[in-house]
Design a protein that fits this description.
By secondary structure, the chain is an all-alpha fold. It has seven helices and two strands, in the order αββαααααα. Strands 1-2 form a two-stranded antiparallel ribbon.
Length: 179
Amino acid sequence: MFGFGKAKREATQVGEAAARMAIMPFWDMFERGFDARIWSDPYVLGLINGSVGAQTLSITGRKLSTTDKGFVVLGVLRSLGASQSAIEHFLRLAQTQDPEFARGSDDAILTFLLMAGAVKKEAYLEPDIVAAKEAVQQLREDASLLGITQDPRHPDEELGSAYIFLKAHQHKEAHYPRE
């Protein structure tokens, strides 16, 4: 019998948490699950891919083979509630390099690069990053109003969280009509 391995197990746990954070705007409080439409949405599936993939980048210190990285992604998809058909759709999007899937993946990876303070100075002038900087204080206040108390977070971590929240929220507003 083979084991899952510490690096894979850790990447899966952190990847799942990262993916949940990235797609939180799609959580349905009443259904107590993610909006089922995410499993056919290339951008949201890309967010999941990038969030998980970022956990296997060299900056994390985890050394995983390509096969292990695939197992990590599949494990996260299953734990988030993806059906087998959603997983197959995810794999097709990744293989065909779907542009929306790639955009979601890039947004998620940039989130973690922001959190790590690993982007060039000129990137902080990009409109989406400027908007995230401006949103940090409002997101702090919103969390406080909801009674969510957090230990003080590093400014890079807050910026990354604001960035991915805004990107996912913008996508949801544009593509998920209210019922």
